Amino acid sequence: MTAAASSDMPRFVAELLRRVHSIEGHGQVALDRIVALTAEQLGSVLCTLIQVDLANKYMQLLACWPPDSGYEHHMRARRITLGNAIGPGTVEMRDAADSNWLEYYDLSNTDCPVISRGVAAKFGLQSLLGCPVTIGGHVVGYLNHYARESSKFVESDRELLDMLARRAGAALEAQESERALSQYKQLSSILSRMDEARTKEALLPVVLDGALQLTQKRRGWIGEIDRMGAEVHVERWAGEPPDRTDRQSQRVAMRALHECRPVCVNDASLPDWRDTGAWRDTQSALAVPLLIRGAEVRRGQKVEVSPKRLGVITLECCERAAFTALDQDLLSSLATHAALVLDRMDLDQKLAGMIGVQQEIIGKVDGDEIIRTVGSAIASVFQYDYVNISVVHPEKQTIETEHVIGLPQGSLDEFRQRARHRLDSTDIQADIVRSREIEVLSQDDPRFDKTIYQPFGHDQLTRVFMPMIAASDDRVIGTVEVGHRRTKWHEIYEEDVRILKQFVDYAAAALERRRRGILDEITHELRAPVVGIRSNLSFVQDHFDRLSPDFVLRKLDDMLIDCEMLLHQIRELDYFLGRPPQVPKIERTLVLRDILLGAVRALKSQVQERGLDPSRIEYDQASFTRMGALYIDRDQFRQVVSHLLINAVKYAEDEPDQFRIFIAVKETAEHFILSFSDWGIGIEPEHQARIFDTGFRTPGAVAHLVSGSGLGLAIGRRIMHDMGGDLRLDHLRKPTEFHIVLPRQLQEEHRDSVH
Amino acid sequence: MILMVEDELWRNDTYKMELEWAGYEVQYECGVDKAWQFFTEHQDELEAVILDIMMAPGKRYMAAVEAQGGLNTGLLLYRDLRAARSDLPVIFLTNVRFDHIADLKDEPNVLILRKLDYLPHTLPEQVQAMLGAGPEVEPGSPALPADAQEEGSGQ
Q: Which residue in A527, A514, A538 sits closest to B52, CA to CA?
């Protein structure tokens, strides 16, 4: 029956070896010659070379003798899922692989992993001897000799088959190496093109087209995690438009993401994978996650390593078992590189966003505006759902929320009320001020304020807390707290924390610069009157005997004015440091007599020095008389009036005939309105909205007179609000008109009726 | 003649009066624009200039970034004055900290005085030491403003 029966064994073996070695190359021709030689030597009725992929459980016919046989037509170009081809409960291919050789008899009545009973009966195959074809010790296929008889195979059959199977293994290995080399060259070229991409929109086509090119497939898609991981959005697809993008159809992709490894499905008709795939006729799919394996995440105060999932590439095919181990390798390399490039782009984008905002902050002098800008930038650039910037108030020993994004609608005021904590409390904000550490908290952290935690939805958030530290004196001036919803992803990545920290440091420096700038202004403003008083005192003391009484009186006036200025500055300082105003001292006050005339007199020297005429400060006496006496805190009200008058003089035009200030009382049903009109340099329309902001001075004001802290109007408005009134800008230029709004309840008779 | 440039003379006029009392002729100008105009018209008559540092930048320096919104106005005016007259003695008389102009004290004919450290009556000594000669008028001459003098005094 076989060549082993030959009587001239050495010659036969030598001849066989010669013929085996004469088979050149590793292409299809070589494989066909190997099966032909096998069939010839063993007298096979059918000889096949099949490729098996044990990992993915499929087999495929590579070569067959006799050529063009019915069996070949039956098998050619088909990939048969192992197990599925022969039905459940039959012999597993892995069992066969473990035993290495396939040896089966009475095939039409016996379960065999590589041929079904029906096919065996159809082609009259009774027995099978299959020798494993190996590459590097791994079974990659079988060289199968089928016989019509059921007689036992002998040792010489095995030896011959083994020799030819080794040659087949060498041919397949060479073929695989060549293909792999070519594909890795392609991969290298694709990676280079990915490096050249500058945007995600430019990168994703390169990645997807590259994946299809490497695997020689036609359809696939790239999904991006919605930054949070709960959903995968199809960002780009290739081939015909997908039939579906629901979670059911994305199960392969989701598993790859969940398990952080490639997942290959060879038969989508299996129960586990039914209805998977973006296209309805998908039979096999390969999903590879886009992830950074060694990403650093912040947990508590520590930094640990964890995968960072960015998205997934999924290739699909309408044939079963369409993806090889090499496809997985290639796609994994592609995905790893794509993830690195995507992550770098994301970080670059965040950095660019932050740098852009830093430029914006440079031009801001108002602290509230700096904080608002920082908060909005953090929310938009990092896409956090929640941002809370809190500021330390040393004078009150508290930390209080200044700006918050992401609260339930309408809850801001209540939140700010509750989120005010003493620095010595156990609340997390106070603790961050003390510990100075960046921290991501677990849900059950005892430092969370329970009155805030659930009512404001903080139980739904993963948050990082970060101290704002002023570099100048290493003082914690506040905290930044950011987070995203837990339904999204659970990690806070350290790269984000680093960029955020850099930005927060910058914001802290900006706030500190602005604070120091205002303090410098205030101390300068304090120094000037002190020096003025001392100079005048010294001068009068040195020359007292020679000075006229009028001159001494004038100098005393100057010194009194400087004393008033000092008190004014001290009130500004109190305001700036956040000290609450003193308990109001309510007095019966005639505004004209008790406040306005004194304030005008105090300005006389300044007005004269500028070559202006003090008599052009006018008031409508009758309207003041009609208003009568008010019950107000005289000192506080004097502060507001003085500031408006000082401004009107400071910012007067240089031409004397343009100088005029006019003060009058207007009446409405509810209010008295003291209008202060001046014909000075005015206020530009673009600065109208910010004129009451703390520390704000218009460029025109700065150019005209450098001194000034920019606090006066902010303080004035606060004082008037405390009185139940208001301070408003009514007209910008010629005249510039400010209105002090006083409720009628402050009037004498009203007060009497109330009492 | 000494040109004094200052935004708030009402508060600092005692410095001016002390110089005048000591016999110097002092021309006061409020603001850099007027000061520069006076300088261009009278530069050959000037013995020295006394400048504040922190002053409104005026039209002259409004667009100059270096003026820093007025914090450095005096410094910019100093440079312009020196460019026009490199030998012109300049005294900075100021309330502000002058760390940022401390290097100027090594330049010839420059004096930096902080008002906190120098009372008005000490200014004439400093000016005299800088200029190397006393004023043309004898000290004690009737240089105070008319309203400052008691009748019959000051002679």
A: A527
